[in-house]
Design brief:
Layout (H helix, E strand, L loop, with lengths): L17 H32 L1 H17 L3
Helix pairs in contact: 1-2
Length: 70
């Protein structure tokens, strides 16, 4: 597995100003996107390794989706 990149994106967010807030928001979005990519990758790996559990989880999700209609 690879190590997540550590950056000092939040260092500029301490000083005030809109530019710092925008940079902070951009850094937060980058970190969130990286987290979601890794989460998706981990779920795919788990589904390949444990197909029975993955199928059971899909069935539970289907029941939840049928139960809560909007």
């Amino acid at each position: 597995m690879h190590e997540p990149q550590r950056t000092e994106d939040t260092a500029g967010a301490v000083s005030g100003g809109d530019a710092a807030a925008e940079e902070s928001e951009a850094a937060r979005r980058r970190r969130r996107a990286q987290f979601l990519r890794e989460l998706h990758e981990a779920k795919e790996l788990r589904n390949r390794v444990q197909p029975r559990r993955a199928r059971a989880e899909r069935m539970r999700q289907a029941v939840r989706m049928r139960t809560f209609r909007w």
